[in-house]
Design the sequence.
């Protein structure tokens, strides 16, 4: 078992000149009025210019078809100094995915400085902000480490 450290996530993000995004697999579990979630970065990365990141829907469908539930998407806003917020493009993209997959989804946004922000969307738009309890790296040994997020809304 060997761990391939990718270094400080904040440094990695600040070095990246393009927006980076990845689908998140995991679980959202409703208990009474609280939804608990665990979300892990899936190994499909996309790069693009800021505001122009889009996903290959076939890769997403393949993930779903092989039994991995998409719980949302993670992406970076390297251009945003503090407390990243979703853009109108992000909202449109999230609404489309919520409609396509038929459920509410998480939109997690990192910048280079602050704790990532977690937004919950449904097919009508923004629903609420989620609390992020913990985030870090998973312990994958094959392809290095993937981001891991735990929280509630
Ligand atoms: Zn964005």
Sequence:
């Amino acid at each position: 078992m060997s761990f391939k450290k990718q270094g400080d996530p904040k440094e990695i993000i600040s070095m990246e000149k393009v927006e980076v995004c990845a689908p998140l697999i995991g679980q959202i579990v409703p208990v009474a009025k609280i939804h608990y979630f665990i979300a892990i970065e899936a190994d499909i990365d996309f790069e693009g210019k800021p505001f122009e990141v889009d996903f290959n829907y076939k890769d997403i469908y393949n993930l779903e078809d092989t039994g991995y539930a998409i719980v949302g998407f993670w992406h970076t806003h390297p251009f945003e100094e503090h407390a990243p917020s979703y853009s109108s493009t992000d909202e449109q993209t999230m609404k489309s995915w919520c409609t396509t997959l038929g459920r509410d989804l998480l939109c997690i946004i990192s910048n280079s400085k602050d704790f990532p922000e977690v937004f919950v969307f449904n097919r009508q738009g923004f629903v609420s902000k989620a609390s992020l309890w913990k985030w870090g790296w998973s312990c994958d040994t094959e392809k290095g480490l993937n981001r891991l997020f735990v929280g509630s809304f």
